[in-house]
Amino acid sequence: MRPRHSSASANDGYQHKDWFLLSLVNIANQGIPMAITVHVSGLIITGTLISGTRYFSLMGKYFSKDSQDEAVAKGLEETYRVYGEIYHQADANTHMDPSFLHLEHARFYGPDNQQIPCGDETFLWRGRLSDISGFSLGALPSDE
Fold it and tell me: Which residues, in sequence order, are bridge partners of residue 107?
């Protein structure tokens, strides 16, 4: 008698993504931010869920802000703007589920519930959706 399945698990190569969290990320990717708190590998991360387009735009501004050369600064901003275009291409083509979520004003809390200092009000965070073990709507208040 032959086995019906190979020795590989039916879930090999597939990373589970919560359908509801995925829908919230799709809403954020349409330009509607929202406060959220996620649980990842024992950490609690809280902030504002933003679009991938906004995330990459802010990354470009972050990396270009200290440049003394205006051409270099503009080049950095343009490079990151182009990275963010993938989110517009996904909208224009057939539906493509995102694999990452993006937070602005991210704050981190360790297992002891103590806030981990970040020092920057606009701290950005990008996380893989399949690594999120839980979430709640709303952001935790800052300890600072």
Answer: 46
